[in-house]
Design brief:
Number of strands of chain A: 0
Number of strands of chain B: 10
Helix content of chain B: 10-25%
Shape of chain B: globular
Order of helices and strands of chain A: HHHHHHHH
Strand order of the largest sheet of chain B: 4-7-9
Radius of gyration of chain A: 14 Å
Largest interface: B-C, 27 and 36 residues
Oligomer: heterotrimer
Strand content of chain A: under 5%
Structural class of chain A: mainly alpha
Radius of gyration of chain B: 16 Å
Shape of chain A: globular
Helix content of chain A: 55-70%
Distance between the termini of chain A: 22 Å
Largest sheet of chain B: 3 strands, antiparallel
Order of helices and strands of chain B: HHHEEEEEEEEEE
Number of helices of chain B: 3
Strand content of chain B: 15-25%
Chains: A mainly alpha, B alpha+beta, C mainly beta
Structural class of chain B: alpha+beta
Largest sheet of chain A: none
Number of helices of chain A: 8
Chain lengths: 130, 175, 373
């Protein structure tokens, strides 16, 4: 399943792709690596699974609330940009066609709730997660 | 032999050596051409002290990469691979580059721009105890590991024995 | 001099020639019970040297590994615990992570408990915590994923690994529980059941802003809980009541930012382990520097002494040699040990703040991280 092309173009057009990639490298790339593959199992891969996770109930909140995302020293607006960029850049093949990019208000709301036990939540949110 | 002849031959030697090292750095290779360009910096002994150097991709630098004051080391905690048989972007012989690191930002005094600096550790050997530095610009405590330099960053390597630290330019910082 | 042969005859002749001197016999000491002024002083990332700072005498060496962050003494059992990483060929080869149970009298390993290969390295006192049941030990892991290994030091077995993303460090709190500091500006408390498995997890309200003024990862224990200091010198006193994590409104170590004799001077706390607290005297000792912004790791130029319940500074001690580590003894005639940049350990009488002793030759790398028993 591929994301509708106009969604991808919309996300890439504004804000500047190069900027978001630099922000990804600064706050995520050190551990998840420049291409998002991470070093499983200690550092999860951001390629593929995320596309599935955001489709299930609780998934969109989860990807905002994981400490790596919610604790990054960036505004809600920039965090929204980074997460959408990761989804499109690394998960285009697994994102649903009707995928709606995360919005800043949505990310703000999710970010306010503390996820004290991410591993437990991950298992609950996505039964298919190994 | 004219000085210019000597300089030319030294430049060719340095570039060859760095090119060979580049091909071994698989994880850097994945990061794209802008990074490889930034990494190629012929360091001529006679110029090391304070002359500007220019690389193919336009990153101009100044200063001594074997000194803690070097601009890239603004948040480096550890020993310098440049003093240990490595360079700012390469591990000394037999020391494995860690794929995982933390990324900070430092200001380049030549162009006053902020650059992303990846502080990768070189691992799997006894510590090279030369050129110990501990600078802390924008470094955070260990409960914020993505910005913490008081962590032994040898993760994803065969051994977590710490040898030294490099400072790899990842690009310009934007936000 | 008559050269003594090894033959019996030779020995008898020797004995006759050197009448009255018997050969000495070599023996081995056992370390006595550590007193309140006995400290474990680390030389760089090497072994810990046990000194009585009151006498300046060294009593023994605890041979912890390069990676071992700190040790957790349990003198009631005559034991000292350390989370250690070993390789079969010193720096590589087959890796084994263990909690070593050191005998406190011989300072040698008497047991090992294997744990997941995830132990976090580099000197942090609070990467290891014996919980208040004196049975369960919490070891902080970093891979860089954050988790905690729980070990039963009585049964001598590994119990479980508890995943703690976003939070780090373990500091013991009543009720078989420990606190951690989290990157979202909160504290997290994890409570264990009798078997050592997680039974509860709670988070405090947000009390600091990571970007504006983070708290240091080096808390100190008080009689009622823990004390945390922020980069800009705010002091937070933490106590736990049941499931409530109580954090008081902070007071400042650097009140005179704008007025008085220190106005305009960028004093701030910093260094390695730069905080130490005397429980009975209610005194907090802090290494302070004038580096200003980004001075959180800079060596201290002075020690400032604070009365915690009065929330005020009562003394300043200018250091001849800048320092990154200090530690105060818990006895009445307290001594303050400071690891100077001259590599020596400087001992001050707390009542007079006069230097009473300098201990030199503390290992090849000089005096570093200090902890007590």
């Amino acid at each position: 399943m591929t994301v509708r092309w106009f969604v991808i173009l919309g996300l890439l057009a504004a804000p500047a792709l190069a900027d978001t990639q630099a922000v990804y490298l600064l706050h995520c790339g050190g551990c998840h690596l420049a291409d998002g593959r991470g070093v499983p199992p200690e550092v999860p891969s951001l390629r593929g699974d995320l596309g599935h996770i955001v489709q299930v109930p609780g998934g969109r909140e989860y990807v905002v609330q994981v400490p790596g995302a919610s604790q990054a020293p960036v505004s809600d607006e920039v965090l929204t940009q980074i997460i959408n960029w990761i989804l499109v850049e690394f998960n285009a093949s697994t994102l649903a066609e009707e995928f709606e990019p995360l919005s800043t208000p949505e990310v703000s709301r999710s970010r306010k709730r503390v996820l004290a036990d991410p591993l437990k939540t991950r298992k609950e949110v996505w039964r298919g997660y190994e | 032999m004219k000085v210019t002849d000597w300089l030319d031959s030294t430049i060719n030697q340095s570039s060859r050596k760095l090119a060979q090292q580049s091909s071994r750095r698989g994880f850097i290779g994945r990061l794209g051409s802008f990074l490889v360009g930034a990494a190629v910096l012929p360091l001529l002994p006679v110029w090391r002290a304070s002359a500007a150097t220019t690389d193919a991709e336009g990153l101009q630098e100044i200063g001594d990469p074997q000194s803690c004051d070097y601009w890239r080391y603004c948040a480096l905690g550890g020993t310098l691979c440049t003093c240990c048989g490595g360079s700012v972007t390469s591990c000394p012989p037999g020391a494995e580059p860690s794929p995982i690191s933390w990324v900070g930002t430092c200001r380049n005094p030549l162009d006053n721009k902020d650059y992303l600096i990846s502080y990768n550790d070189c691992c799997g050997k006894a510590t090279c105890s030369r050129c110990f530095c501990h600078r802390s610009e924008r470094d955070l405590p260990v409960y914020a590991p993505a910005k913490a330099n008081d962590i032994l960053w040898c993760f994803g390597t065969e051994s977590n024995a710490y040898h030294c630290t490099v400072a790899v330019v990842m690009g310009e910082a934007t936000a | 001099m008559l050269k003594c042969s090894t033959l019996l005859l030779g020995l008898l002749l020797c004995a006759a020639g050197h009448a009255g001197i018997q050969p000495e016999k070599i023996s081995q000491e056992t370390m006595g019970a550590p007193g309140p002024t006995w400290f474990l002083v680390r030389s760089g990332l090497g072994s810990q040297y046990v000194f009585d700072v009151a006498t300046g005498e060294m009593h023994g060496l605890l041979p912890i590994t390069f990676y071992t962050p700190a040790v957790e003494p349990n003198l009631a059992q005559n034991e000292i615990y350390a989370a250690e990483i070993y390789y079969s060929r010193v720096h590589n080869g087959t890796r084994t992570d263990v909690v070593t149970v050191y005998d406190a009298e011989t300072l040698t390993s008497k047991a090992e408990i294997e744990v997941p290969q995830k132990i976090a390295s580099l000197p942090f006192r609070h990467y290891i915590a014996l919980l208040d049941d004196a049975q369960h030990l919490a070891v902080f892991n970093l891979t860089p994923a954050q988790s905690v290994s729980i070990v039963d030091v009585k049964q001598r077995n590994f119990v479980t690994e508890i995943s703690t993303p976003g939070c780090a460090l373990n500091f013991a709190t009543p009720g078989r529980a420990f606190l951690q500091i989290c990157g979202d500006g909160r504290l997290q408390m994890i409570r264990l059941d009798e078997q050592g498995n997680e039974s509860q997890r709670v988070r405090s309200d947000r009390f600091f802003n990571l970007e504006e003024d983070p708290v240091f990862d080096k808390p100190v224990r008080t009689a009622s809980g823990w004390l945390l200091v922020s980069y800009q010198g705010d002091v937070f006193e933490v106590s736990v009541d049941g499931d409530d994590i109580e954090i008081n409104k902070p007071w400042s170590l650097v009140v005179e930012k704008t007025e008085g004799e220190l106005a305009g001077q960028p004093w701030g706390p910093g260094g390695g382990h730069f905080l130490s607290y005397h429980r009975d005297l209610d005194l907090l000792f802090v290494l302070m520097n004038t580096v200003g912004e980004f001075g959180q790791d800079s060596a201290g130029e002075e020690v400032w002494v604070f009365d915690v319940s009065e929330q005020s500074r009562i003394a300043r001690l200018a250091l001849e040699h800048k320092a990154e580590f200090l530690h105060v003894s818990q006895n009445r005639d307290a001594l303050l040990a400071v690891s100077g940049e001259d590599l020596n350990l400087h001992i001050f009488d707390v009542k007079t703040l006069k230097e009473v002793r300098t201990i030199d030759s503390v290992g090849a790398a000089g005096a570093g991280h200090i902890q007590g028993f």
